[in-house]
Amino acid sequence: MTMAAMTKDRIGALCTIGPAAAFMVGIVGIPLFYILYVSFNGPHFSPSAYVMLLSSRLFFQSLWSTFETSILATVLSVLLGYPVAVHLARQPARRRALMMIMVLMPFWTSVLVKSYAFTIILGRRGIINTALSCVVGHKVALPLLFNKFSVVIGMANYLVPFVVFPVLASLLAIDPALGRAATLMGARPMRVFRQITLPLSLPGVIAGASSTFIISLGFFVVPALLGGRHDVMLANLVDFYTRETLDWPAAAAIGMCLLAVIGMCGFIATTLRKVRRV
Amino acid sequence: MNTAFTDKPACRIRYLTTGLACAVYGFLLVPTVIVMLISFGLIAGPSQGGGMHPTLRLYAEFLSSSAWMTSVWHSVFIACASMILSLGIGIPATYGLERFAFRGQNMIRGMLMTPLAVPSIIISLGIYFYFSAIGLINSFAGLVLAHTVYVTPYVIMTLAAGMRKIDPQLEFAAQLMGAGRQRVFWRVMLPQIRPSIIAGGLFALLMSFDEVVIAWFISGVQTETLPVRMYSSIQWEISPLIAVASTLLSAVSFFACLVASRVSPADGGDTV
């Protein structure tokens, strides 16, 4: 490309991308730096908010809870998403597109709708307890809501599609001749699955699991609506310090910690994927 | 016919995965269906007498409740404004990214995608601090700006997928015949990417209409959106009208999902 064309391209790029870039800098970039600024106590620089966090039991409790809940939700989502991906991969293309709606619909459904539904299904006088009462014959009130169980169920319900999409993509990339060849040579279906399907779909599983885990770390709505007082995650703690105690530096410092944790996990996930590819 | 499929253990495995998959489909879809049934009075909701006759009573109550309806109109207004604004900045930005060559292109592309990489709680917190400082908190302008930024990455992704699918030779031919860059864009490119624009606009509309975390932080009593009202309602009072609001939200999602899959049947999955 000639020099003049290069310059012309640069001007064109500036005119077209400029407005969007200005929006991103103005409404995401500056606020992100503003969090950092507030976390160090605004104009009077001091790391006091971070020092406070180091001695805060509530902070470490919710940090642990964030990891625990995210791991459980990720494992459950992979276990639920994998069979769906296998089932979809086996369908003929047109039927698959139609059945995808059963995964896409929940994907687009608001997390509020799902959380509300689970308060009704899992509540003390909810659908499951009422049904169990009918079966057993006397009143049953299993504590299914406002604990870790309901949070993990609610999160997995939201996250399953994030596992299905990448796993389905890697299952569809497997050459069907491999399975046929193995079967012709006498491999039982279980062995075909164990030695061909599963290893070759692993990149999809890793991609799905890592993105699911990272999304889980920042979850806010589900633990707030379905969790009890002991299931507070970092995102809820941010909200608590911003609105309830009005301690902005603390809220900002927790936000920075959450961002650091997510950034670290994202880095590990991308490195993991690169290592596997080599 | 492949012998593997008439083999007994193979059949057993097929049934097993089909069964498991159907159970998961149920797990994914049943919650929404239950909420819809409650809204039509077919199941008794919480804090409600056990009547089980189909009725539109809750819908009538919802439509006559000024608090709920106000929040619906707020959400509609914010979603429409964010959609127009995000298309307004997203279409040229995607064109620039796809049709110009310049240094730092990947960095700029990455920068435009930041709202995807940063969890919404962090974006909300930053915007909350920043808007408090510049006086945009609890304002429609603030909500529209925040939602625009939040949905723009999805708009750009959808548009980029559409632009990559069309044949660049057509634009080249138009240029050879003397059309300027602007004319090529309006007369050759835009008509070809119209489906992607519709799909991207719908995604923007739906995502803004559904968005709760950012709105929860920066909206106030005068600017409360439907999801924010639902969120606080689920937390504090569990009004049966939440079922109606939920059905409304699901209907919007269903409509958007349907139109999007009709407009671009192939990439319903990988644009998101």
UniProtKB/TrEMBL annotation, chain B:
Stated name of the protein: Spermidine/putrescine ABC transporter permease
Membrane-protein topology: Multi-pass membrane protein
Pfam families: BPD_transp_1
InterPro entries given in the database record: MetI-like (IPR000515), MetI-like_sf (IPR035906)
Domain spans labelled ABC transmembrane type-1: 72-260
Organism: Komagataeibacter nataicola
Repeat keyword on record: no
GO cellular component: plasma membrane
Family matches, as CDD domains: TM_PBP2
Principal location class: membrane
